[in-house]
Fold this protein.
Amino acid sequence: MEKELRLMKGNEAIAEAAIRAGADAYFGYPITPQSEVIEYLMAQQPHKRTGMVVLQAESEVSAINMIYGAAACGRMAMTSSSSPGISLKQEGISYIAGAELPCLILNVVRGGPGLGTIQPAQSDYFQSTKGGGHGDYRLVVLAPASVQEMYDSVELGFDLAFKYLNPVMVLADGIIGQMMEKVELGEQKVRRTPEEIIKQCPWATTGKPESRDHNIITSLDLVAANQEKFNIKLQAKYKEIQDKEVRYEMINCEDADYILVAYGSSARLSMKAMDILRAKGIKVGIFRLITLFPFPSKQLFELADKVKGFLAVEMSAGQMVEDLQLAVQFKKPVKHFGRFGGVIPSPEEIADALEQKIIGG
Amino acid sequence: MAEITLQDIIKEENLVYKKSKVMTDNTLSYCPGCGHGTAHRLIAEVIEELGIQSETIGVSPVGCSVLMYNFLDIDMQQAAHGRAPAVATAIKRIMPEKYVFTYQGDGDLAAIGTAETIHACNRGENITIIFINNGIYGMTGGQMAPTTLEGMPASTCPFGRDIELMGNPLKMTELVANLAGVYSVSRHSVHTPRNVRKAKKAILQAFESQKLKRGVSFIEIVSNCNSGWKLTPRKANEWMEENMFPFYPLGDIKVDGQLVTK
């Protein structure tokens, strides 16, 4: 069959992917730089294409609670926002994690703190990978570095969300959301029938038949010992995710003396920096993070034996670098280079930083 | 003629009342004299009488009735404080053929969840909202609610609600009645058998009206909180009649999409 190719923005690609993946619902609230997601969906009229429910909520708080309601019914539900809006969603995300429900959350990150800026940033790494809301929980965090990966993150994200009954976050940034690239679209999947959903999600609140006890979706247990037991179960799940779901890409690391560790747009910029450095005879490789949680700690720990140093490149004041330092465990120097507040670093700056901070340092 | 004993009377044909099958056997967690138990029972009876146990999904709030899902034998979801109308919106949009209701206290519905309440009502979601108004935060220990009356003491207004300092009590029910997406609105109580019968009829109609797809059916139940009000159950009901009902008058506010003119 001929490939279906289209030139799309990252935000449009993920919206189209949601329809084609057979998602049941999208609830969102507009915010720059990701409003194209809901605009695209509304223009596509997915209720006509597949029966998918799309609704503009009155706030991000309401949107994430709609996701909570849809997920409790065993549905494939997605929301999207950008940094200040994602902060508002944290209460709901904590409830969804606490109730062990699947859902997909897109954050097209912009510079902060506060209202910050509408320009791209990667300064929500801590919030995304360390929980974000209250309580001991984790999200699976995927970091797409192209419009194609934005598209592909929907199916992967829903697969992981339903496999582990856990919210999955796609952590993009304003560049990935706004830039246009060629995308290969997948086939339209048929949405699951209500009967298939009940079979796949016997825990879902879809109406209690005579044949089973009533289903309850809650994150509450007033008995501390029970709540601790539940937390231990959650931690075991996160451990399993850590063991099985690490995803990363190593580029030119075989002969490398120095490693640029980056994700998303920073990884794309680092590719160019690597070319600049290699042209000078400096052997540089890239370790691109695809999952931010789980973090590929073991792989980086092992790589540390073979190289002279690491430079974490991120559009933040230094967040991912802390996980990198923990992974490398002082075996080799780990430094950070970042531009932030919405400023995008140039490949030359990244190359200079490696020379000065790692080679020169 | 032989003497009639109690055992002779306890027979199936003489049974005039029994617990609804839609209520579980779990012991209610409410204070003696509280109206929540009665309100739960009415919802359970309506679900049973309409034969919609397998078609109903309830959303419980944060507050005293957070554990409602332990008492009703239907599928239920517990929502974050104030967010029940957003949760119910999604459930109903996804499964429009089901019966979906929220059960919310005054702090939940009229303070922290004001936005969710107003917008779910304004969108005209085909859901039923049951609003329990006792003018106080019961579970957290008797703090001032958005519906606390002027002069009424609470733990965060120990000298009584001072309008100048704390603002006015909020008539949320009259407010939502003015929204186009709201089909029916009425205010009830469950402290006397007569009022219980009226409240039950309203709940029944509210569930039935979900089929019409004409928007929200909204029922306020003015209730007591004898623990929070620091009164005996009987005194609390008297206090409710004397103080709550004049400010929150019982009766129909909107019928078949039309505001009731008094």
In short: Residues 22-259 of chain B form a domain with the Rossmann fold fold (CATH 3.40.50.970). DSSP finds ten helices and ten strands in chain B. Strands of chain B lie at 56-60, 75-78, 99-105, 128-133, 136-137, 143-144, 182-189, 216-222, 251-255, 258-259. The longest helix of chain B spans residues 193-209.
